[in-house]
Design a protein that fits this description.
Strand content of chain B: 5-15%
Number of strands of chain B: 13
Helix content of chain A: 10-25%
Largest interface: A-B, 126 and 135 residues
Oligomer: heterodimer
Helix content of chain B: 25-40%
Structural class of chain B: mainly alpha
Largest sheet of chain A: 22 strands, antiparallel, barrel
Number of helices of chain B: 20
Number of helices of chain A: 19
Largest sheet of chain B: 2 strands, antiparallel
Strand order of the largest sheet of chain B: 2-4
Shape of chain A: elongated
Distance between the termini of chain B: 82 Å
Chain lengths: 1190, 596
């Protein structure tokens, strides 16, 4: 509320023509605006020089300087009057008396603001007077509240056309003597829209005021300081934190999806899995994560930041805003400020509890066991088998399900199924035991629904308590959060405990010190996502005939050799139950700020983080699968590290005449060090978690450790200049030195930006619907060195057991040897991201509509990349060299609107649209592409990152239907023979009936590797978010839609399920019912055969590429705020309950479980995404929540 | 406070930081690595030499092939794919969808993009690079005695020659990188036999006769390898001259006079690794790397029986039916059917379920068969009688047999098996050159020189060992308890004889060569030599056509096999390497003939 009022004041001030005003601000006094006792407020000092400025304007400036709010009616005090002030270190009280007194303007300190009124207004009734005074028989009384029902103190209530006026008291009550029954009362309040209500003879007149919606005066935190939104000359997305935290996740990055234009977020449903965050596309072949700056401290991770602690969040997208962060700005910067305390002690409790529901149904379209048998029969028949004989399904014209899968194919009553024969010790410790097991497993003829064996409904809860308060002596905020999200995938979860303490102490009028600290403990065991080899992958690979458990309750599986090679996914997950992880992180800063002179503020801040984590896991021996790991092992790992940033800045803030200058110089030193330590051991006698540790195994034992360190030193400079609030100019420069470079340690990162507020020009004055309009542009350089490792400059030798140890003396003893493990590049220098940005900000229809749009272009030059070098150079790690080049361009648009349909019904909407177009311009001087992600193909990769194309484009053969007849095949072969002059040539390797016909893209008459082409792009054409909100009386409702359009997904799951020979796992209905047969040529899948082939599943082809566009209702929430009057008595100032649903529906053509597909753990490469090999889907979540403040 | 105090404060804070952040603060040496200066001395160079030996296994860390190519098995030093499968010794095995990239190699339609080629190439050039680093820093080190310098240099050159030899037989035209090369983008326009021979010659001239450690190469290994290099160049006389010295005089690195082991299987027993038959071996060690069998035949760890076998994974590398048929001997003579072996095919259990009864072939067989292939009903080392189908992933695809030479014994599994990964490793050494191989190569030289009697003597020396009943496979004392030991009853009807004296002389050179080639096939079966032998003998097209015709009629894996003369003798230069050889607008590396 405070902010809104402030905003409006500034807005009011802005509208005033300032041509005759000369203001010099000499001194900035920062203090606390609330709960200041009267005299203290009046003792505040400030300096100001104004010649013939409007009173309104002067008050605004003073308000800026002293942080004390004035409340007045412009009409009453005739604020358009002009005055001159020349005050140096003048107390506020003095000013009020000396300057305003003579103008008949009097004041009254009310709470933490100052009410101004005209002295002759004798009817002014001090708030709280007895309203039953007989003198006031014609009095009208009532209460003024906000739309949310909160009482508004200090509202000016005037009788229209008279000088009769009053203000509301602390509880929002007023009483006024209306001269006649037809009088009209005018209610005005800073930050709210004025309202006129005719008295019409009423004696009680309650008024509800509507908040003004313009955000122009909003103060935005930018690099090393703040700026008013209206002064911004660069591309900054301001995130609506209120909308942000509505979704049930602990990850701020996940919350960011769709909330800020220019930001692309790709996540998954796995608790604690940090999504891929991209600001304006992909900038490098390595780390593309943005830099986070939390309370002024740069960091690489905000995964443990409690979303409830966020006060504001800004995304710095272009060079104009981000270059101030120099070498680390290239991927964009996300600036987060955490909440500070203010006002009287307040306790806020926010909590929700909910349930997460996995998708129902046959999500992978898997066949039943009988259908699996039928498919096997079909594939064998298609492959020329005539003598059908199967160890499982028997011999005969059709396959019959056995009663038992172990002993293989046994029928009920077989002597071999006598349970007395059963012999299996699940926790065996020797291979002798394993080799003598006798397993008996019944066939699950109905079929095991493996998806729902591993995905179960799971609870989620977040409990947050914050205690805050503040006075002129300081402020504090303490918060504690408990977050517990059980994964819908069994035995995955995120448990996080976070506490935060933010405080500031005002040591003297000119010195402030403080700290922001957060400590978190996280337990978050995860599975590696998007891999056919994790439990999810094994769930669509494990055959349905396999039950979860055998006849004695031990795990059942593919053991026996004729049921594929998949693992029992339930066993995989349950065996990880005792594996634990714990991560701790202390993150924060301490700072001191001193006002050196009236216009110079010195700030020194020391911030950083200290973190550590540990995990241990036990690998149980397996017995149920066809490929078992038969030894048990135990592993522990830990990491620890710290980094700190010491920042010193001197800021300058001065205005003279129409010129306003804000400047800052500073220096910063950053140092980080991290290390890892771990070990493993084998052969445990007992698997009791209380017994297993690194020492108690019988070997081989392994230990490892590693460390890395680097440092940065930087000089920072920034100037913002505005003339007449109309012409804005910003310039930043930063010089960074990095320990990662040897010969070119330092780099310069300059940026300039400019803005022109067209709406301030005369020619737009009459265009009433344009409240504010600004065009702006910027150009600058952002840097990058994230990908470069500390040792990049040096050629080094090392040793590793796998690569350089050798049993030179024979036996099982190895001797350590050396090999060149790194080739050095001492000449590496800073990567440069040259950025131009052009955009506009507009506020229309008095704040009902805000639009912000940008077009940008980023040329990344000297891109640091470690391209694969020719094999003859050996295998030493290739250094990063400034070799590659990339380009991004695109539009970001955000549009928001609000309207009040009726006094009770208010609607708001915010839409963001993000586009980027990424083009690789150069990879290295040796090659024009590199490939990633081969999965189970013949070694061909799915993704080719090639010059002239975007990062992460799919590459392979394009299918063009099937070979439907031998004549067609013969004709194609004849063509190939003619083209090659080789009588034995074939058109296409493994050409055959019902197999794919590949497109001869180069037209040479046959299919070769050169016919491979780009099949799809994992990058969307655009992504969008839409927040819709409505409040009706005490009800509020919000909807958040998110979507992407125009991207492709590589559905690798289909490789496993749609092709019979792709390992002997579970198959899909498509394979059985919609594959090519001579009678079903119009099929989607090719002919089912027993062997893989180049012309079906052995090479990447377009069969796997699907349209990845989707739109999802990410969140819907309905809330109800209880009548505060009654609750107030109970000490509760706010009580809101809500129900909320996440991921309620998704509209997509994608056939997989979830169209949101990010980076796979299989490659770990940030330039390979969009390959779905079994995603951990986002789950539908239903919540019941509570917001309570007292 | 006064304003001046504040100003002073400002100055202090900034000065403090500048002081603190002086240039030193941005100096950060690499952590956990050694600089060249630290390595360029005796201990450092010795360490680099060990590193150069360590490249022999083609394996890096965590199951990767050396050089960061791909999976370890793509660059296995045993050449089980490029030598054995491609040569018709074995089916790929497993099932059709597992490691699909081997299929095109087995059937000779592989193109240059096949990942196996790139991995192998990179692993071998990393070996070259390591030997070059030894030689480069050896020259810089100042604390090494002349004698040590000679030995280290000669070992490095031996190893470099080995890596180039492997490259040469795979690709023929390969670029030369030596210790002086700084631009690694070199053309493949020269024949490198000169360099390979020179390195081996240097090693032969400078290596000591024995070494303190059995894994180090010695003079005689270099002599045998040099002779092999001559043989590959068809310089039979040069090779023969060397064999004439090496065979009678050679000793192993541990000083054992070169000889054949009494028992054939001893070659494949880790406990017998220091034996007289060792010429040049790649030492494997189990359970030394807890993160996987990186020193324990990681490159071959797919090659164990599948299904309900005790090995778990992964059912690759199944001896072909064609190979097994080679072990049929003439019941009367105990000699092989040199050309008509498939007419006397050995009975197998194709299509027979594990639960159905099967009686193994009762005809006469070469006893080496049952050390080479797992056959239904025959003791599979001490793991029990090979059960056939239950241990096979897809019989119709890979046939009925299982690999054996690379399989560890149950009794010694604790030391020989490495179960630290999802598929087993073993400490069975890979034999690059064993004495039987030397004798058979010498036999070729003699036959080429027309001294057929000498050739026959060499062949017979090899056959005589096989005929020694002490080295045969015997039935178990108790089939249900294979660990209880073997009976006196041979596991099959073994009958093998040496060629009758004068047989070679009387039947002539072609017959002799055929017999030598045949002997090589069965003695060294599954050991990675076959394809390269076929190519250097110039009979690849003919032999492989016959193989595809026969095997392709029985298993589905090589149905489409077709060898193209003038092309498939060598593998394609990896496309990725050609693409990386871009210099200006031209690619420095040229593709081998027939590939595009």
């Amino acid at each position: 509320m405070k902010k809104k009022r402030f905003v409006a004041l500034i807005k009011t001030a802005m509208r005033v023509s300032m041509t005759q005003i000369f203001i010099g601000i000499l001194f900035t006094c920062s203090s606390f605006a609330k709960n200041v006792r009267g005299q203290e407020i009046l003792n505040k000092e400030f300096s100001i020089t104004v010649k013939q400025g409007k009173i309104k304007q002067v008050l605004t400036e003073i308000q800026n300087l002293t942080k004390v709010n004035f409340i007045y009616s412009s009409t009453i005090i005739r604020a358009e009057r002009k005055i001159s002030v020349n005050a140096a270190h003048k107390r506020l009280g003095q000013f009020l008396e000396e300057t305003l007194g003579p103008l008949n303007i009097y004041y009254k300190v009310e709470d933490n603001h100052i009410l101004l009124y005209e002295k002759e207004d004798q009817v002014m009734i001090p708030a709280g007077n007895d309203l039953n005074d007989p003198y006031l028989q014609s009095a009208v009384k009532g209460k003024v509240t906000s739309e949310k029902g909160e009482p508004l103190p200090g509202v000016s209530v005037n009788v229209k056309g008279t000088r009769i006026g009053t203000t509301t008291d602390n509880n929002g009550n007023y009483s006024i003597n209306a001269p006649e029954a037809s009088a009209v009362l005018v209610f005005s309040y800073i930050g709210f829209i004025s309202k006129e209500i005719p008295v019409n003879g009423q004696t009680i007149l309650n008024a509800q005021l509507q908040e003004e919606q313009t955000s122009l005066g909003e103060v935005v935190v930018v690099g090393y300081g703040t700026q008013r939104k209206k002064d911004l000359t660069s591309a900054v997305s301001v995130v609506n934190v209120g909308d942000l935290i509505k979704q049930p996740t602990a990850s701020v990055n996940n919350l960011l999806q769709g909330q800020a234009s220019g930001v692309t977020v790709l996540g998954s449903g796995q608790p604690g899995e940090e999504p891929q965050v991209r600001i304006r596309g992909v900038n490098t072949f390595g780390n593309n994560n943005p830099l986070y700056v939390v309370d002024g401290v740069p960091t690489q991770s905000i995964s443990d930041l409690n979303p409830n602690d966020i006060e504001s969040m800004q995304v710095l997208k272009d060079a104009g805003s981000a270059s101030i962060y120099g070498s680390r700005a290239s991927n964009g910067v996300i600036v987060i400020t955490t909440k500070k305390g203010k006002g009287k002690v307040q306790v806020a409790y926010d909590a929700y509890y909910g349930t997460q529901r996995p998708k129902g149904g046959n999500v992978w379209n898997i066949l039943t066991p009988q259908e699996m048998a039928n498919l096997k029969h079909l594939a064998e028949a298609n492959s020329g088998v005539t003598d059908f004989s199967d160890p499982l399904y028997g011999d005969g014209a059709s396959y019959v399900l056995p009663d038992y899968i172990l002993p293989e194919g046994a029928k009920e009553g077989d002597l071999s199924t006598n349970p007395a024969l059963y012999n299996l010790q699940p926790l065996y410790t020797s291979s002798d035991q394993y080799n003598n097991f006798y397993r008996i497993t019944k066939a699950n003829k109905e079929g095991t629904d493996w998806y729902h064996q591993i995905f179960k409904p799971a609870p989620i809860t977040s409990q947050n308590v914050a205690v805050s308060g503040g006075s002129d002596q300081g402020s504090y905020l303490f918060s504690a959060n408990y977050f517990n999200q059980q994964g819908t995938l069994i035995d995955t979860y995120l448990k996080r405990y976070t506490i935060r303490s933010n405080s500031q102490y005002n040591v003297s009028k000119h010195i402030r010190v403080g700290e922001n600290m957060a400590y978190s403990i996280t337990n978050n065991p995860q599975i590696g996502g998007l891999s056919g080899d994790n439990a999810i992958g094994h769930a669509f690979r494990e055959q349905p005939i396999i039950p979860v458990r055998d006849i004695f309750g031990n795990y059942a599986g593919s053991y026996g050799g004729n049921l594929g090679d998949a693992y029992n996914p339930v066993a995989m997950l349950e065996r990880t139950k005792n594996n634990k992880t714990a991560d701790n992180r202390l993150f924060g800063n301490v700072f001191a700020e001193a006002d050196v002179t009236s216009f110079l503020t010195l700030r020194t801040q020391f911030g950083g983080e200290s973190y550590s984590g540990a995990s241990h896991s036990f690998t149980y021996p397996m017995y149920e699968n066809s490929e078992n790991t038969t030894v048990n092992s135990y592993a522990e790992s830990s990491y620890t590290g710290y980094n700190y940033t010491w920042t010193n800045t001197l800021s300058f803030n001065k205005a003279f005449n129409k010129h306003r200058i804000k400047a800052l110089v500073g220096s910063e030193y950053f140092k980080e060090h991290s290390s890892t330590l771990g070990g493993s051991n084998y052969g445990y006698f007992s698997f009791d978690p209380n017994y297993t540790n690194l020492s108690t195994g019988s070997g081989p034992k392994d230990t490892y450790s590693s460390a890395s360190a680097d440092a940065l030193f930087s000089l920072i400079g920034r100037v913002d200049y505005s003339y007449d609030d109309k012409y804005l100019l910003g310039a930043t420069i930063r010089r960074d030195g990095s320990s990662k470079f040897l010969q070119n340690v330092y780099g310069w990162f300059p940026a300039v930006s400019a803005g022109w507020r067209l709406s301030q020009e005369k020619f737009l004055h009459d265009v009433k619907w344009i409240t504010d309009l600004k065009i702006r542009g910027g150009y600058g350089i952002m840097g990058n060195q994230l990908n470069v490792s500390g040792g990049n400059s040096f050629t080094t030798f090392g040793s590793s057991i796998g690569s350089s140890y050798y049993a030179i003396g024979g036996g099982n003893t190895v001797v350590s040897g050396f090999y060149q493990n790194q080739t050095g590049n001492p000449g590496a220098r800073w990567e440069k991201n040259i950025n131009s940005n052009f955009g506009f900000d507009a506020t229309l229809f008095g704040g009902h509509i805000d639009v912000s749009a940008d077009y940008y272009r980023k040329n990344i030059k000297d891109l640091l990349y470690n391209p694969e070098v020719i094999g003859t150079a050996g295998a030493a790690t290739v250094p990063y060299v400034n070799i590659a080049q990339m380009k991004n361009d695109g539009f970001d648009i955000s549009l928001s609107g609000n309207t009040k349909v009726s006094p009770d019904l208010k609607l708001t909407a915010t839409a963001t649209v993000t586009t980027y177009h990424n083009v690789i311009q150069k990879i290295s001087s040796d090659a024009s592409y590199y490939e990633v992600d081969s999965r189970r193909f013949d070694g061909s990769n799915i993704i080719r990152n090639a010059v002239g194309h975007s990062v992460s484009q799919f590459f392979g053969y394009k299918t063009d239907g099937f070979w439907n007849s031998q004549a067609e095949i013969d004709a194609a072969n004849a063509k190939a023979q003619k083209a090659t002059g080789d009588a034995s040539a074939v058109y296409q390797t493994d050409i055959g009936l019902g197999r794919f016909k590949y497109e001869d893209t180069n037209g040479d008459g046959r299919i070769t590797a050169d016919d491979r082409t780009f099949l799809g792009n994992a990058n969307p054409t655009f992504s969008y978010g839409l927040n819709l909100g409505a409040t009706y009386k005490r009800w509020d409702i919000s909807l958040f839609f998110y979507g992407v359009q125009g991207n492709s997904i590589w559905n690798q799951v289909k490789w496993w399920t749609d092709y019979y020979p792709s390992f002997g796992g579970a198959k899909s209905k498509t394979a059985l019912y919609d594959s090519w047969t001579p009678t079903h040529m119009n099929a989607s899948a090719p002919i089912q055969e027993t062997a893989n082939s180049f012309s079906t599943n052995a090479v990447p082809n377009s069969y796997f590429v699907e349209n990845g566009s989707y739109m999802r209702l990410k969140n819907a929430q309905v809330g109800y705020t209880f009548n505060s009057a009654r609750l107030l008595k109970a000490g509760i100032s706010k009580l809101r309950v809500y129900v909320s649903g996440a991921n309620l529906f998704t509209i997509t053509k994608y056939s997989g479980v979830d169209p949101e597909i990010g980076t796979s753990s299989e490659t770990g490469s940030q330039t390979a995404y969009g390959v779905d090999d079994g995603s951990y889907p986002s789950q539908r979540t239903f919540l019941l929540g509570l917001n309570l403040t007292f | 406070m006064k304003r001046s105090t504040y100003i002073l404060l400002t100055v202090l804070v900034f000065t403090a930081q500048f002081f603190y952040s002086c240039k030193k603060a941005l100096e950060q040496p690499p952590l956990g690595s050694l600089s060249e200066e630290i390595v360029a001395n005796k201990n450092g160079v010795n360490g680099l030499l060990i590193g150069a030996y360590a490249a022999l296994d083609g394996t890096g860390d965590n199951g990767t092939s050396l050089g960061g190519g791909g999976d370890a098995f793509q660059a296995s030093p045993s050449n089980w794919v490029f030598g054995s499968i491609a040569g018709g010794d074995a089916s790929k095995g497993s099932d059709g969808s597992d490691q699909p990239a081997i299929d095109p190699i087995a059937n000779f339609y592989a193109d240059a993009n096949n990942v196996y080629f790139n991995s192998k190439w990179k692993a071998l050039y990393e070996g070259v690079s390591r030997t070059n680093n030894v030689l480069r820093l050896l020259a810089k080190a100042t604390d090494i005695s002349a004698e040590d310098e000679k030995s280290i240099g000669a070992q490095a050159r031996f190893l470099r020659a080995h890596y180039y030899f492997e490259l040469k037989k795979m690709w023929n035209m390969i670029p030369l990188i030596d210790e002086t090369t700084t631009n690694f983008n070199q053309p493949n326009d020269k024949d490198l036999w000169v360099e390979i021979t020179a390195d081996l010659k240097y090693a032969y001239d400078n290596l000591p006769e024995t070494q303190s450690e059995i894994g180090r190469v010695n003079k005689w290994a270099a002599g045998a390898y040099l002779a092999k290099a001559y043989l590959y160049q068809h310089k039979f006389a040069d090779a023969k001259a060397l064999y004439d010295v090496v065979i009678p005089n050679g000793v192993t690195s541990s000083g054992k006079k070169y000889d054949l082991n009494t028992s054939f299987e001893d070659n494949f027993l880790p406990s017998k690794e220091d034996n007289p038959e060792v010429v040049f071996t790649i030492e494997m060690a189990a359970n030394v790397d807890p993160s996987g069998p990186s020193n324990a035949n990681n490159g071959d760890f797919l090659n164990f029986p599948y299904g309900s076998s005790p090995f778990g994974c992964c059912g690759f590398f199944q001896p072909s039916i064609d190979l097994v048929n080679h072990f049929r001997t003439n019941a009367a003579t105990g000699l092989p059917y040199l050309t008509a072996y498939n007419d006397f095919a050995i009975k197998n259990d194709m299509g027979v379920k594990g639960s159905d009864a099967f009686t193994p072939d009762d005809g006469t067989l070469d006893p080496r068969l049952d050390w080479t292939a797992g056959r239904r009903g025959v003791p599979y080392l001490d793991w029990g009688n090979y059960p056939g189908e239950p241990w096979i992933r897809d019989q119709t695809y890979g046939g009925p047999y299982g690999p054996k030479k690379n399989i560890y014994w149950q009794a010694t599994a604790a030391t020989d098996a490495d179960l630290t990964s999802w598929a087993p490793g073993s400490s069975i050494n890979y034999l690059v050159i064993r004495f039987a191989d030397v004798l058979l190569m010498a036999a070729e030289c003699e036959a080429q020189a027309g001294s057929l009697a000498a050739a026959e003597a060499y062949v017979n020396r090899v056959r005589a060992r096989a005929a020694n009943k002490a080295g045969w496979v015997y039935k178990y004392k108790d089939d249900t308890n294979p660990l209880s030991g073997f009976s006196d009853t041979p596991a099959a009807n073994y009958k093998i004889n040496t060629y009758p004296s004068g047989d070679f002389d009387s039947q002539g050179k072609d017959y002799s060569l055929t017999a030598i080639y045949y002997e090589r096939k069965i003695e060294l079966a599954m050991e990675g030599h076959r394809f390269f032998d076929l190519v250097r003998w110039g009979i690849a097209a003919k032999e492989l056509a016959a193989y595809f015709a026969y095997q392709g009629s029985l298993t589905s894996d090589v149905k489409r096999g077709a060898f193209t003369t003038g092309k498939n003798e060598y593998y394609p230069i990896p496309q990725r390497q050609i693409d990386l050889s871009l210099s200006g607008s031209t690619k420095t590396l040229k593709q081998n003939p027939g590939y595009n």
